[in-house]
Design a protein that fits this description.
By secondary structure, the protein is α/β, with parallel strands linked by helices. The protein has two domains: 133 residues, Luciferase, domain 3 (Roll); 153 residues, Rossmann fold (3-Layer(aba) Sandwich). It contains nine helices and 14 strands. The strands form two sheets. Strands 1, 4, 5, 6, 7, 8, 9, 10, 11, 12, 13 and 14 form a twelve-stranded mixed β-sheet that branches.
Length: 333
C-alpha cells in the first residue's frame, strides 16, 4: 500500500488490530524510505522484514531531529517547525511534508475529545502566530482560532488586562471558552485573578500545555493543578501533550491522565534497556507511535518519563536527568 492510501486509512482506525496493521505497513515504508531511520536500523542490525509485531519495532531517539532531516519519501517540504530552546543549536527541527495531514490530525483529535472548534472561544496565553511561525503548537492554535470564527478568540500573552476583561465578558454571557497556555503564564494569570478577586469560572476549560523551566519554580503536576484549580474555581485542569517532532496530541481532562486518539499509541521502555518494553504501572521512558507522522518517523523515543495505565491512557512523570531545557514555556525567549 502506498503512503497516500495509508494516510487515507489512518483516521479510520477503530481497534487495536487495524492500528497494528497500519503501523506495521508504515514501519516497512519508513524503514525503506527514511534515510535516517534506515541507517539507525542498520546500525542495530535490524532486518525490517523480520518485524511482525509492534513490540519488535525500534523507536528512533528524538534527539536525531536536532542533527538530521528526518523525512520519509520524496515529497517536498511544506513547513519546518522548530522546538523551543535556549539556542538554535539545540532545537529540534521537524520538516513537515504534508501540512494538510497535520491540520487534519490536530483538528480530528480536538473534535474527538472536545467537539467542534466552532463551539469554543479560544483564549491563548501563547506568542502570536506572527511572533512564532516556526512553532507547531502556535500553528495549531492559530488554526483552531480560525476555525472557531469567534471575534474574542485570539492570542493574549502580552495583554493579560484585555484577557481578564474578555473572561469576565464571556462568563457574563455564559459562553463556553477554552483558556490555554504555557504553564508559567497561566500561573501569572492565576495570581492576577486572585488579586482581583475574580468570581469562580463557570464556563471555562483551562488547559496547560506544559513547561516552566527557567521562568518560575518547578511544580509537580498535582501541585500545579491544585494551584490553578484554586485560583480559577474549577474542579479540574486540562492538559495537552504534544511535541514538535509529532503531528498528533494527547489530552488530559483531569488528574494528568492523558488519552490518545486512535492513531496514536504510547509505550514505555526500560530506562536501562531501551529495547525492553515495560508493563502498565511501571515507570520508564515514553515511546510514541504517531501514525500521522508518516512522512517523518512514526516511532519516536522521547526524553519524557511516564507510565501507562491501560492501552489508551498514560501519565507523564517528568524528564530524564540532563535533558535539554525545552518545552512550550521556552517559546518566549
Amino acid at each position: 500500500m502506498n503512503p497516500k492510501q495509508l494516510t487515507n486509512n489512518i483516521f479510520s482506525i477503530t481497534n487495536e488490530i487495524s492500528f497494528t496493521d497500519i503501523a506495521l505497513e508504515i514501519f516497512q515504508f519508513q524503514s525503506r524510505q527514511n534515510k535516517v531511520y534506515k541507517e539507525y536500523l542498520n546500525l542495530l542490525n535490524i532486518d525490517p522484514a523480520g518485524i511482525t509485531r509492534l513490540s519488535q519495532i525500534p523507536f528512533l531517539p528524538v534527539e536525531f531531529f536536532k542533527t538530521h532531516a528526518v523525512i520519509s519519501g520524496n515529497r517536498p517540504i511544506e513547513r519546518a517547525f522548530l522546538s523551543s530552546g535556549t539556542t538554535n543549536s539545540n532545537r529540534s527541527k521537524h520538516e513537515v511534508c504534508d501540512l494538510a495531514l497535520y491540520e487534519e490530525s490536530f483538528t480530528k483529535c480536538f473534535e474527538l475529545f472536545y467537539g467542534k472548534p466552532q463551539h469554543y472561544t479560544f483564549l491563548a496565553l501563547l506568542p502570536s502566530y506572527l511572533d512564532r511561525k516556526d512553532s507547531s503548537l502556535v500553528y495549531m492554535v492559530d488554526k483552531l482560532i480560525g476555525l472557531s470564527n469567534l471575534t474574542n478568540s485570539g492570542f493574549y500573552l502580552r495583554n493579560t488586562d484585555e484577557l481578564l476583561n474578555k473572561i469576565l465578558m464571556l462568563e457574563q454571557a455564559g459562553q463556553k471558552y477554552l483558556l490555554l497556555g504555557v504553564t508559567y503564564a497561566l500561573l501569572d494569570l492565576a495570581e492576577k485573578v486572585l488579586k482581583n478577586k475574580f468570581p469562580k469560572l463557570k464556563h471555562a476549560i483551562v488547559m496547560e500545555t506544559g513547561g516552566m523551566k527557567g521562568m518560575r519554580k518547578e511544580l509537580v503536576k498535582a501541585e500545579l493543578h491544585a494551584t490553578l484549580k484554586n485560583a480559577f474555581g474549577l474542579k479540574a485542569i486540562h492538559s495537552e501533550y504534544g511535541m514538535t517532532e509529532l503531528l498528533s496530541q494527547a489530552y488530559s481532562k483531569e488528574n494528568g491522565i492523558f488519552n490518545c486518539p486512535p492513531w496514536m499509541k504510547v509505550m514505555i521502555r526500560d530506562i536501562n534497556d531501551p529495547f525492553k518494553s515495560l508493563q502498565p504501572g511501571q515507570t520508564g521512558g515514553i515511546n510514541i507511535i504517531d501514525l500521522a507522522n508518516i512522512y517523518s518517523c512514526s516511532f519516536i523515543a522521547t526524553q519524557d518519563l511516564g507510565k501507562i495505565h491501560n492501552e489508551h491512557t498514560f501519565e507523564v512523570l517528568g524528564r530524564f536527568d540532563n535533558s535539554d531545557l525545552r518545552g512550550c514555556n521556552l517559546l518566549i525567549n
